[in-house]
Amino acid sequence: MADRHASGDGRNGFNGSPPDLKVEIANGSTKGEKEDKNLWPRALARAWTLMLFVGTCLLYCARMAMPICAVSMATSFHWSKIDAGLVLGGFFWGYCFTQILGGYASDKLGGERVLLISAVSWALITAVTPLLAHLGSHTLALMTMARFLMGLLQGVFFPSLASLCSQRVLEGERGFLMSAMNSGSNLGILLAGGMGSLLLDRYGWESMFYIIGFLAGLWAFVAWLCLIKGTEVTPKRMERSSDTQWSLSTTGWLSLLKESPVWAMVFTHMCMSSTFTTLMLWLPTYFEESYPEAMGSVYNVIPWLVAIPSALAGGYVSGFLINQGYSVVLVRKIMQAVSMGLSSVFIVLLSGGVPFTSALIFICAAIGLSTFSSSGVSVNVQDLCPSCFMNMLGAFMGLVLVSVSGYLVEVTSSWATVFSLLTLVNATGLGIFLIFGEARRVDL
């Protein structure tokens, strides 16, 4: 097979080292010693993987707290649907602004430090949200600002994780790490829904924010105490005559934007992210309208239970194929084909009039298979340019597709048009990635 290699040394010219740490092991260069100082030892890598998994879970719990409590809050503060949409949309506007900053700051200061600082900040915002809501008569403005700040602070997470992954983790293990983080996000959505069903009726919507904020703060303290305190987290770099790899100039960014693999990665991520966001936000409404007698605890929980092991399985398969000698770019495309291609088959099946059990199975399959993207385009950013800004564009695209989907349902009174649109977006993004996608560093 043309995409296989006899050894693992030459995968598309990329050996998993950070930008300034290209290593020529065969020549016995002392550069390898410098690179080893950046990579986590295996025991530390496992500890960080577990810690980041829990952190991602809590990140999504905090992110989903407002959507889950929105109905109760709208009743309490007499919000209209437009008001509630303004509050919920505030997160995404803030989220877009810190994408580039997150990757740049992580390269300079260390991803561990950036993640910790941001976690402490958004944990505090989450915990004080109920206090802000009852602070005065300007509840709508305060909640919108709180969501905007939440988006700003959480916006650095995945760019920092991408930078951290490229600097600290071996190439063949990156797919599993990102898949574990994806599983953490799915678990966070699941737990937020479960906590909401238990807390809202018994203790009020305020308890949701208090508990999640406390747990996130506790996670940050444990991470600092066990993994960061007394350790060097700033990436060690080789001496160079210039430092363009770590602080891209305007010329550097313009050069980067000329690379077709970068645009393919960004465009595919935009398509994948927007379709997943649309499914996540509209599925409860779809099930409630199409199957009014179905239990919400079933269709709001089971798909995310399926997504967790599916994401881990995708990461395992990705790492296994790379370790077997398959080229990195081939593995990335296989994972993305499963995520956007095979999952779309099950989305299309929802267009017809199907019974509830079949619809639930199709949704579980679509969401479960979509998690394979964590070992595809989501990790491809570390292959090409760890400080890339694709999450920012993905957030914008998500806002557009969610709005268009709502408009289509309102005008056509049919969910089939929405599922057809999602399939079209997935197919377009996948086609671009299969044609132009690469796995070689382009910011060197």
TrEMBL record:
Residues 48-441 form the Major facilitator superfamily (MFS) profile domain. InterPro entries: MFS, MFS_dom, MFS_Na/Anion_cotransporter, MFS_trans_sf, SLC17A9-like, Sugar_transporter_CS. Pfam families: MFS_1 (PF07690). It is found in: Membrane. One of its GO terms (biological process) is ATP transport. Keywords: Membrane, Transmembrane, Transmembrane helix. One of its GO terms (cellular component) is membrane. Coiled coil: none annotated. Its main location: membrane. The chain crosses the membrane at residues 47-66, 86-105, 114-133, 145-164, 176-196, 208-228, 262-282, 302-322, 334-354, 360-381, 388-409, 415-436. It is a multi-pass membrane protein. Residues 1-21 are annotated as: Disordered. It comes from the Eukaryota. SUPFAM superfamilies: MFS general substrate transporter. One of its GO terms (molecular function) is secondary active transmembrane transporter activity. This is Major facilitator superfamily (MFS) profile domain-containing protein.
